[in-house]
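Justification of resources, computational component.

The compute hours requested in this renewal are based largely on the per-chain cost of generating structure records like the one below. Each record pairs the submitted sequence with a full structure-token output. That output is archived, and it is also reused by downstream analysis tasks.
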Amino acid sequence: MNSVVEHKLDKRLNDLLNQFELEVKPYDKLSTISIVITPFGLVLSIFIPILIIKVLSQSNPFVAIVSGSSLSWIIGSIIATLCLTKLLLFYVDYKKHEISRIKYRPIAGICMCDLSHLRSHIYRMENAKTTGERLRQTKLVNYYKYQIGLQ
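The structure output for this chain reads:
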């Protein structure tokens, strides 16, 4: 098994990566918000039409959903919620790669997003409690090193 010491990043790449992660922190907050809001949006897209049906028609809302077009509205709102949150995640990923490509790739020669993944797997490998977890993280570290071209 490879030692942890040979998987360390050099200081220049580590400093560039710290600067990159500070610069993309607002985009990471957007992706966190998107991930947190998705379940709430799904629940609301189901219960708001049921509540509206209950208020507008004094009958059983479940009968009104099945007999009317409310079911298509509920399914459509679920799909719209999933698509909007996914679009936000695509936008965040695009902006992070754009920052990496324009500002950092000419300096470092590699994609900072991949380097960020590499560093997180190195930390996970260092903090692994079991041999299986350490081996899995070592494989991921080697994969990202190969993808980046550091091997």
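The radius of gyration is 23 Å. The helical segments are 11-23, 25-56, 61-67, 70-108, 112-126, 131-148.
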